[in-house]
């Protein structure tokens, strides 16, 4: 994992002025910078720690169209094409289209995807329902534990720990400026208009700022009076040593998810276990999160405080400026979760017995009340844009989200309907409609 001990790879001398300053060097920020630079804009990306140091390198590595919110699906379909193009350009993404499987033990589990199948067909996505015989023609060395599956053959996977840093290196070759260990202290505002950013390494004049800081976004926005409902959710993940080929893509059942890796091992996680850390800000907006919490109650475990997660519900200040002490948020994986994961791996996939887990980690997912992201300009503050709250779905959709934000920042009209992702939905009286669960 990338941590605060990892060497600094990007530390440009800060310019006096740029066209766009991006706060956050994850998949969204780096992808946005990539597309902005193609339009000739001068771009600076500031990250308090390391490029892709947090959730962008700690996720499962799925690039899936399957199971998406209907408004996300056409964007995700474009993102698959962009992942392919980036790989063809020589960027070390680890992209491979091996398909995605949602494994079902009974008919009720399969029927959960009926709505998705309806609109997937409308978008001409090749998603199929597989019976047992068809499923086990795809799976190797696995007992017949599942009766059916949902299958999207052109879904992909990539390697999070290499994909975003290598895209960042490609950005630098195109004259994008990237500065690690460069936390933003505050946004400079005159007459409700962005005119610059004060970083810990100096002031940079700019008229447009994109906040895509993941777990830290709500805190930063709070500093300028912008209330973004955001919940912090911890996921524990592990990787195995090289193992027999079970499936060359992504698969998830009711309690275990696994993804083939380029190194021949698997990234493994529990699909029914996430830990929720409320903050003082999310507690103040608890009513907005209740539908989401109810919908995922079986897999969400409430946690009051954990030092490594950097979420303290009793800290009413929650000062963004404190983040310099947490250059790379590195929550510790939960020991009980890892033990349960190991047991399930051995039970569900006997071919994995004796294959050691060689690394484990955790990441903090930034979730919105409806489990779909914000990709929008802030009407009350001219020049401020937000791309955050991807709710555990951000890695795969990241390149297309970056393209969308690049267009928004330049004032272009998107070919996608972005009304689902508007920031104002949280305060304009609209009824929030739940997307796919985190």
- CATH topology (fold) name: FAD/NAD(P)-binding domain
> What low-confidence regions span 5 or more consecutive residues with pLDDT below 50?
none
Distance between the termini: 22 Å
Helix count from the secondary structure assignment: 12
**Major sheet size, sense and barrel closure:** 10 strands, mixed
Rg measurement, Å: 21 Å
Query: Structural class of the secondary structure composition?
Result: alpha/beta
The CATH architecture category equals 3-Layer(bba) Sandwich
Q: What does the average pLDDT come to?
A: 94
- Overall body shape: globular
Tally of domains:
1
Plain-language structure description:
With 438 residues, this protein is of the alpha/beta class. The protein has one domain: FAD/NAD(P)-binding domain. 26% of the residues lie in helices and 22% in strands. The protein has twelve helices and 21 strands. The strands form four sheets. Strands 4, 5, 6, 13, 14, 15, 16, 17, 18 and 19 form a ten-stranded mixed β-sheet that branches. Strands 8-2-1-12-21-20 form a six-stranded mixed β-sheet. Helix 1 runs parallel beside helix 7 (160-173) and helix 1 runs parallel beside helix 12 (394-409). The longest helix has 16 residues, at 73-88. The radius of gyration is 21 Å and the shape is globular. The two termini are 22 Å apart. The mean pLDDT is 94.
